[in-house]
């Protein structure tokens, strides 16, 4: 089963609308759930992911890496059914994410 067709544990469909609704809910709860700096970094990291997926990623790994370590990493993520990485760090090759910033602007950037 492909990850894009899985239903999350809460039985909500994986759609853009559902994702935006979840994001709105998180924006309303942000002060109770995370430090604002961490929440800001996650929003910017997510925005970078979307932006680069629609253009090109700023740093590509060489073919040797993609065909060896990259395949092993993909197999591990695929077996888990999800990717795990530090959401407060920038996408490799992208600008560094500041420790804190305007959460509303970061949210609009992600939704943009």
Would you summarize the structure shown here?
By secondary structure, this protein is an all-alpha fold. The chain has helices at 16-33, 36-54, 63-67, 69-80, 103-111. The protein has one domain.
Task: Describe the protein.
The chain is built from five helices and no strands. With 112 residues, the chain is mainly alpha-helical. The chain has one domain. The model is unreliable at 1-5 (pLDDT under 50). The protein has helices at residues 16-33, 36-54, 63-67, 69-80, 103-111.
Give me some keywords for this one:
mainly alpha, 5 helices
Mean pLDDT: 79
Give the strand content: under 5%
How far apart are the first and last residues' alpha carbons, in Å? 30 Å
Radius of gyration, whole Å: 16 Å
Helix/strand-derived class?
mainly alpha
H and E string: HHHHH
- Count helical runs: 5
Helix share of residues?
55-70%
SSE diagram, text form:
Elements: H1 16-33, H2 36-54, H3 63-67, H4 69-80, H5 103-111
Helix pairs in contact: 2-5
